[in-house]
Amino acid sequence: MDLKEIMAVNLRRKRHDLQMTQEELADRAGLSTRYVGKIERADVSASVSVLGKIAKALGAEPGDLLKRAGHGRKS
């Protein structure tokens, strides 16, 4: 899985956790709904600037949207 696919999965998961629509996220991030959809489908790679806008709109750290799930430290 490449970074744009990892971001797509994490973005969609975080947005769903917040019960936020693509339209709401797009509005909060100052992006078009179509562009947010393309990012979530991994059709496009988001720039660092867009990553920052999306993370802020989600109340997340930008790096959290790029972390592969299940690769953290185990207790």
From TrEMBL:
Give the classification, highest ranks: Bacteria, Pseudomonadati, Pseudomonadota, Alphaproteobacteria, Hyphomicrobiales
Q: Which GO terms describe its cellular component?
A: cytosol
SMART domains registered for this protein in UniProt: HTH_XRE (SM00530)
GO MF terms here are:
DNA binding; DNA-binding transcription factor activity
Name the record gives this protein: Helix-turn-helix transcriptional regulator
The protein's matches in InterPro entries, at most eight in alphabetical order, are given as: Cro/C1-type_HTH (IPR001387), Lambda_DNA-bd_dom_sf (IPR010982), TransReg_Diox_bact_type (IPR050807)
Q: Which residues form the HTH cro/C1-type domain?
A: 11-65
Which PROSITE patterns would you find in this protein's record?
HTH_CROC1 (PS50943)
